Amino acid sequence: ANLVLLPGDGIGPEIVAQARLVLESVATQFGHEFSFASHQIGGIAIDNGGDPLPQETIDACRASDAILLGAVGGPKWDDPSAKTRPEAGLLKIRKELGLFANLRPIKLFKELVDASPLKREIIEGTDILFLRELTGGIYFGPSGREGSGATESAFQSMVYSVPEVERIVRLAAKAAQGRDGRLTSVDKANVLEPSRLWRQVAARVMAEEFPDVKYDVVLVDAMAMHLINRPKDFDVVVTGNMFGDILTDEASMLPGSLGMLPSASLGDGGPGLYEPIHGSAPDIAGKGIANPLATILAAAMLLRHSLNLTAEADAIEAAVGRVLADGLRTADIARGSDSIGTEAMGAAVIQRLS
Amino acid sequence: ANLVLLPGDGIGPEIVAQARLVLESVATQFGHEFSFASHQIGGIAIDNGGDPLPQETIDACRASDAILLGAVGGPKWDDPSAKTRPEAGLLKIRKELGLFANLRPIKLFKELVDASPLKREIIEGTDILFLRELTGGIYFGPSGREGSGATESAFQSMVYSVPEVERIVRLAAKAAQGRDGRLTSVDKANVLEPSRLWRQVAARVMAEEFPDVKYDVVLVDAMAMHLINRPKDFDVVVTGNMFGDILTDEASMLPGSLGMLPSASLGDGGPGLYEPIHGSAPDIAGKGIANPLATILAAAMLLRHSLNLTAEADAIEAAVGRVLADGLRTADIARGSDSIGTEAMGAAVIQRLS
Lengths: 354, 354
Ligand SMILES: CC(C)[C@H](C(=O)O)[C@@H](O)C(=O)O
Ligand SMILES: CC(C)[C@H](C(=O)O)[C@@H](O)C(=O)O
Prior knowledge:
2 copies of one chain form a homodimer.
Chain A: E1 2-8, H1 12-30, E2 35-38, H2 43-49, H3 55-62, E3 66-71, H4 86-96, E4 101-107, H5 120-123, E5 127-133, E6 143-146, E7 153-161, H6 162-177, E8 182-187, H7 193-209, E9 214-219, H8 220-229, E10 236-239, H9 241-253, E11 262-266, E12 272-276, H10 293-305, H11 310-325, H12 342-351
Parallel strand pairs in A: 1-2, 1-3, 3-12, 5-10, 8-9, 8-10
Antiparallel strand pairs in A: 4-5, 4-11, 6-7, 11-12
Helix pairs in contact in A: 1-10, 1-12, 6-7, 8-9, 10-11, 11-12
The complex binds 3-isopropylmalic acid (IPM) (2 copies).
């Protein structure tokens, strides 16, 4: 398989390097051939050519089987008056590759349950799969300014169409069939017209195509509450781009170990993009102490979803579990006790692969 | 003062009745005259005339000094094909009275710290005042449908203008001056044009008019995370209508005692509207077990913000504190031990007023 690496900024290169070593070890062990090509995205791409997503990166991604991304952004590129920003590369690659579904599993490693800001009895047993719509909604709606001076106003429109809702709901319902068979759709249908369309279409798709999946709807404000006081009640959750941005970030705090959470962005047939949920952590970049496990788990998602290599994905996830069971921790999850560095953690996973 | 009561649906009438008794007791004790007139809103108003906000309710509210609301809504009016819904009354009264600022204090009663889903060391000391913009943004933007059948789409536009941002930021900054002097503005300026306008206007207002207030900005997705793992870092938080809807509900879960949280919706000069944050709780309506304390604390906010009766507001808040210190609990906050009913709780507050 032909894999593209997009290390990006901050700790990106360090963590992607470890995930690559893990993938290489899997290839040897299971007899696959993976080729790797690195390309630029984000701040580094701006530095080198003014464009956070150069055309040659897009072309390479399109021609690949799957993409592994580190992280983009950092204070260096935060100037509000800058012509472009690293995040623009992220939004553009989603749209260019038609990555309409962002999958974020929120799972608790039992060894890390004490890292959660929530009480043990609330968080224990939490296992949610979020599907966030990623190429529509208010993110990509018409926007602009009107008037000037004291009467200036700005607008941006949330738009959803029937096919956009259908495809993400179908994907979510299929995911639910492979899990606990329950799907929750989150919207704001009591206020927003696109949410009313979303709710109608989702109800029809579920009734016609997935009568076996237990389906319910929750308002976005209520969901923001439920995630905190009864997270273990949810199986698969599907929602729009903006609500998904907020709710998945909220949910990612629940396990208390952001450095452990991967995500996948999938389209229709083309290459998927895999990345850790955490950011580029510029404060610790280059120090060799970043936690590579989320990126390694993203590589496992890549094997599972883009290459259909289930046993290989399982092997990586089991190895990560064993590393934790053996008490190995990077600084971010060490809670004050001994920790190891990025490379040592990568090596520890590889050692436990077989 | 001329007060309007809008008991509404579910437990609304029970809890508003107790808040009224508390206000009457304050009036006697401090030598004021409060007149009370009850009017209809929400489901009960739909049942009695088809309109969730009858004109006579609007007229009475306009002519009043302040309004105390119970709660609206319930399964009885949840039919998605219904012509109107109780919540429409709520949205309309905000717009009709120009209530552009929703104030939600998120405060922990030290007696109830164990009710929080968060660990004690995370939540203890949390004291945030949210200001949510309430009459603009995507809630009231242009909306509609286009196309039909398989290509139908729906839109609703988020719109913010310079004066809309200025007035809510000014109110928030003034609130910060009366507290710890720190203000956080929450937006999604990396994606949304209205957020970019919001950020520009807020920065200008803060620099020109409030150089003494420590000001920063946070993205809405990051804020959804911070609220969970470092809630005590925030003083006053200001944000738009949609983000405020989600974040204030998220924040309201942190203390773990929704039945204790009041809110105020204020306009420019006209009457303010005060209410508990919790809903109409149809499952316990009429049973006499609802917690009236959030509504009683809303009455205290009414005295403070609309009638400028600070000592009186302080007296109510202190009485509520004493009730808790004395171990009195309604069922929702009793955590399995003995509880008292709605009327007994109201009476207990009144007894401790003097
Ligand atoms: C960087 C930003 C544009 C992006 C988003 O809002 O989608 C990020 O928050 C994310 O969730 O991947
Ligand atoms: C009922 C609903 C329309 C309302 C809102 O979204 O504003 C409610 O959630 C609130 O926060 O007061």
